[in-house]
TrEMBL record:
InterPro entries: AMP-binding_CS (IPR020845), AMP-dep_synth/lig_dom (IPR000873), ANL_N_sf (IPR042099). The keyword Nucleotide-binding applies. It comes from Blastocystis hominis. Keywords: ATP-binding, Nucleotide-binding. Residues 17-402 form the AMP-dependent synthetase/ligase domain. GO terms for molecular function: ATP binding; long-chain fatty acid-CoA ligase activity. PANTHER family: AMP-BINDING DOMAIN-CONTAINING PROTEIN-RELATED (PTHR43272:SF33), LONG-CHAIN-FATTY-ACID--COA LIGASE (PTHR43272). One of its GO terms (cellular component) is endoplasmic reticulum. This is AMP-dependent synthetase/ligase domain-containing protein. The lineage of its organism: Eukaryota, Sar, Stramenopiles, Bigyra, Opalozoa.
Length: 602
C-alpha cells in the first residue's frame, strides 16, 4: 500500500521534486502514518506539525519549511483558513478523513485559492500504480544521507526550530529500539504492539513506531482524547506503552481513585496488599496472592497484556516508578534524549535492579560525555560523581537547524559534540542522571541557587496538585508558586476544613471549585502540605514556597491551567516558563507584596 500510495503522489503531483517538503497536521492515525511513509519512500522530506498548534504556528512552519503538500484531518480545516489568507508555498491539500459532503470542507473550499489543489486520500489509493510519465522507483529511492524529517521543536522559549533528521539517523535510533524490544521479549508476535498517543510530530514516537513496523508489530492509535486514555488502552491491549511523567501521574491518580471508591473492607485489603507487595518488590520478588486479590485488576485497566512501560521527556520520580511497577508487575524504563539527538540517546536497563533517578546508559549509536561548568559549581572532577553539561554525538544525531546555521554552530562544537544544555552526573555503575538544566537555575537574593524545574518536579508529586509553576528571581529571597488543584483532593480537603464546595460532576461544581480555591484558609493549608511533602522528599528550606496562588480554572482531561492550547505548555508537557510568568505576572507581584508586608509587620 505504501508503494502504491507513493506512486500515486508522484503521478497526481507531477511538479514534485526530490527532497520537497510535505507536511501533515492532525491527531495520530494509520492514514497519517501511511501518508508519511509513502512520501518518504519517494524521497520527500516530511514536516509533521503538532496537532495542538495554532494557525499562526502552522503558518510559520509551512512557510519556513516551504511545505508544498499538506495532509490534514477534518477538525483542522478551520485552523487552516487564515493560513491561506497570506502567501503560502502550499500547492495541494490531502484530506485524510474528510467526508465529501462535509460542511466544514465546503466552507474551507470557498476560502481556498483556486491555485491550491484538494484531493481525498482515498482517491490517491485508487490512482493506477503504473504510468509512463513517472520515473522508475530506483530514481526516487532516498539514500541514507537524504533528509527524512524536519521536526519543529515546540520549545519552551522562542520560535520553533526545524531540526533536520536524515534517514540513516532515524534508522540508527530505531535499530537501537529494536535491539531492546527483541532481547527483552516485549514483542514476540504480530499480535503484540504499542499504543500510539504521543504526537507523531515528536521524534521519539516516530522512531518507536518505525521500529515496531520493522519487527511486524501492531500499532493501535488512540481515539483522539486523553479523557479516553484508559478505555483506549483496554481496547488496544498493548504490550508496550510509551508515556511521559505527567500522564503517568494522572494514571496513578486514577488508580488511587479506584482504590478509594471501594468499600471499607476492600480498602483494607488493598492497603495490605499494596504495602506488602512493595516490600516484596524491593527484594526482587512478587507475591501472586496479592496480584490475584488486587493487582490483576489494575493490569486490566491497561488492557492486561503490558510487558513494559517506557517514560521520557521529563524526569520520572522514584516513588511514581515504584508505585506503577508494584501495581503493574512490569519493568518501567526511563529514557533520555532530545530531538537533536535522534530522540532517545540513553535508556535504563531491564536487568532486574531497582535504580531510580537515572536515565541509564547510552544507546548504541550515541556517545555521551560531560563538560565542566565551573560557574555553576559542576565539574567532571567532582567527587564521588563527575558532573557537568551533557554532550552527545554519533550517527543518530541531527544534521542541523533548518535555515539556521548560526544556531547549529552555537550548539555543535568543532568535534561534533552537541551541547544539550542539561546538567548530568555519571554514577558508580556508569549510568547517567540528569540533575539540572543550565537555563533553569536561578539565584535568590541571599545567594542561594535554585533549580526550579527540579523543585517543580518534586512538588508535582503532591496529590493535592495537578500542576505547579514555581517562580523566583535575584531580587527576592523566597519562591512563590502558581498551581492547579487536583479537584477530588482539594474538594475533600475543603470539606475537612468545614468549607462548602460542590462534588465533581454536580451542576456548577467547577465554579464552586474556583471559589473555594480563593479561600485563604484552604490555600494556606495546601501550601503547608506541599512544603511538608517537599521536605520529606529532601528539598532545602530555601526551596519551600512562601506564596501560593491556587487557580481553579482547570481545563481538559488532565485538570490543567497550563495547556498547549493557551500557549503555556509544550506538546511534551513541559512548561513554557516565560509564558507562564507573563500570564500570572500581576498575581506573582501581589504575592511578593503580601510577603513583604507580612515581614514588615513582624
Amino acid at each position: 500500500m505504501v508503494v502504491q500510495l507513493g506512486r500515486s503522489f508522484r503521478q497526481r503531483f507531477p511538479w514534485m521534486q526530490r527532497q520537497d517538503r510535505v507536511g501533515f497536521y492532525g491527531k495520530n492515525s494509520a492514514r497519517i502514518q501511511l501518508y508519511s511513509l509513502a512520501m518518504q519512500s519517494q524521497d520527500q522530506v516530511c514536516v509533521p506539525i503538532y496537532d495542538i498548534l495554532s494557525s499562526d504556528a502552522v503558518e510559520y512552519i509551512t512557510s519556513h519549511a516551504e511545505v508544498k503538500v499538506l495532509a490534514v484531518t477534518e477538525e483542522k480545516l478551520p485552523h487552516l483558513q487564515s493560513v491561506f489568507q497570506k502567501d503560502t508555498p502550499i500547492k495541494a491539500i490531502v484530506l485524510l478523513d474528510v467526508p465529501r459532503e462535509s460542511p466544514v470542507l465546503l466552507e474551507f473550499s470557498h476560502a481556498l485559492p483556486s491555485t491550491v489543489e484538494i484531493i481525498h486520500f482515498d482517491d490517491l489509493l485508487s490512482v493506477p500504480a503504473q504510468s509512463p510519465v513517472v520515473p522508475s522507483d530506483d530514481d526516487w529511492l532516498p539514500s541514507g544521507e537524504s533528509l527524512e524529517y524536519i521536526l519543529y521543536t515546540s520549545g519552551t522559549t522562542g520560535t520553533p526550530k526545524g531540526v533536520m533528521i536524515k534517514h540513516a539517523s532515524m534508522l540508527t535510533v530505531s535499530a537501537s529500539f529494536i535491539h531492546n524490544i527483541l532481547i527483552n521479549n516485549w514483542i514476540v508476535s504480530n499480535e503484540d504492539g504499542v499504543f500510539s498517543y504521543l504526537p507523531l510530530a515528536h521524534g521519539y514516537e516516530t522512531a518507536v513506531e518505525l521500529a515496531l513496523m520493522i519487527v511486524g508489530a501492531r500499532i493501535a492509535y488512540y481515539s483522539g482524547s486523553l479523557r479516553n486514555l484508559l478505555s483506549d488502552l483496554q481496547a488496544a491491549k498493548p504490550t508496550l506503552f510509551i508515556a511521559v511523567p505527567r500522564v503517568l501521574q494522572r494514571v496513578q491518580q486514577e488508580i488511587l481513585k479506584n482504590f478509594a471508591s471501594r468499600g471499607w473492607l476492600a480498602r483494607k485489603v488493598i492497603s495490605h496488599c499494596l504495602w506488602n507487595q512493595t516490600l516484596e518488590w524491593r527484594k526482587g520478588k512478587r507475591c501472586r496472592s496479592y496480584d490475584f486479590l488486587v493487582f490483576d485488576k489494575v493490569k486490566k485497566m491497561f488492557g492486561g497484556k503490558l510487558r513494559c512501560l517506557a517514560s521520557g521527556a521529563a524526569p520520572l520520580s522514584g516513588e511514581l516508578s515504584e508505585f506503577l511497577q508494584v501495581c503493574l508487575g512490569i519493568p518501567i524504563l526511563e529514557g533520555y534524549g532530545l530531538t537533536e539527538t535522534g530522540a532517545a540517546c540513553a535508556v535504563t536497563l531491564n536487568n532486574g535492579e531497582i535504580v531510580y533517578y537515572t536515565v541509564g546508559s547510552p544507546l548504541f549509536g550515541h556517545e555521551i560525555r560531560l563538560e565542566s561548568i565551573p560557574e555553576m559549581g559542576y565539574t567532571t572532577e567532582d567527587e564521588p560523581h563527575p558532573r557537568g553539561e551533557v554532550l552527545v554525538r554519533g550517527p543518530s544525531m541531527f544534521v542541523g537547524y533548518y535555515k539556521n546555521p548560526e544556531l547549529t554552530q552555537n550548539v555543535v562544537d568543532a568535534d561534533g559534540w552537541f551541547h544539550t544544555g542539561d546538567i548530568g552526573q555519571f554514577n558508580e555503575d556508569g549510568s547517567l542522571s540528569i540533575i539540572d538544566r543550565k537555563k533553569s537555575m536561578l539565584k535568590l537574593s541571599q545567594g542561594e541557587y535554585v533549580a526550579v524545574e527540579a523543585v517543580e518536579s518534586t512538588f508535582s508529586e503532591c496529590s493535592l496538585l495537578s500542576q505547579i509553576f514555581v517562580y523566583g528571581n535575584s531580587y527576592e529571597n523566597c519562591l512563590v508558586a502558581i498551581a492547579a488543584p487536583n479537584p477530588s483532593e482539594i474538594i475533600s480537603l475543603a470539606r475537612s476544613l468545614g468549607l462548602e464546595v460542590k462534588s465533581m460532576g454536580e451542576e456548577g461544581w467547577k465554579e464552586s471549585l474556583v471559589n473555594v480555591c480563593l479561600n485563604k484558609q484552604l490555600v494556606n493549608k495546601v501550601m503547608e502540605t506541599v512544603n511538608q511533602f517537599g521536605r520529606r522528599m529532601g528539598l532545602h528550606g530555601f526551596e519551600m514556597i512562601k506564596g501560593l496562588y491556587l487557580d481553579g480554572h482547570i481545563e481538559g482531561a488532565m485538570d490543567q491551567i497550563f495547556t498547549m492550547e493557551n500557549g503555556s505548555m509544550t506538546p511534551t508537557f513541559k512548561l513554557k516558563r516565560q509564558q507562564c510568568y507573563n500570564r500570572y505576572k500581576q498575581t506573582i507581584k501581589e504575592m511578593y507584596d503580601a510577603i513583604h508586608q507580612e515581614a514588615i509587620a513582624h
